[in-house]
Specification:
Helix content: over 70%
Number of domains: 1
Order of helices and strands: HHH
Number of strands: 0
Strand content: under 5%
Radius of gyration: 33 Å
């Protein structure tokens, strides 16, 4: 009788282990979900790095705008198409 209880408990334990391994691999919250989250994490880290570089460039541009009057004039002339009252403006069509 003691021997049959041990066998039943071992079979039950082995069944539980097999069940949990299958659930870990196959279930939507299992191994595939972990891999998907790792991939998503890598993509988000890449996006954070790209945005950090863009922020750095914009901060550098702001700094140049604040400290360099020639840069401000260049931006006003090129991007805003502004000119001084004494400048001659030629339009090319």
């Amino acid at each position: 009788m003691v021997m049959s209880k041990k066998i039943i408990l071992r079979v039950f334990l082995a069944g539980e282990i097999i069940f949990f391994v299958i659930m870990y691999v196959v279930s939507p919250e299992g191994l595939t979900a972990v891999q998907n989250k790792k991939l998503e994490n890598k993509q988000l880290a890449s996006r954070v790095e790209t945005l950090t570089e863009e922020i750095k460039k914009l901060e550098d541009e702001i700094k140049r705008w604040e400290t360099n009057p020639f840069y401000r004039e260049k931006v006003a002339r090129e991007q805003l198409q502004m000119a001084r009252p004494t400048d001659e403006v030629y339009y090319v069509s």
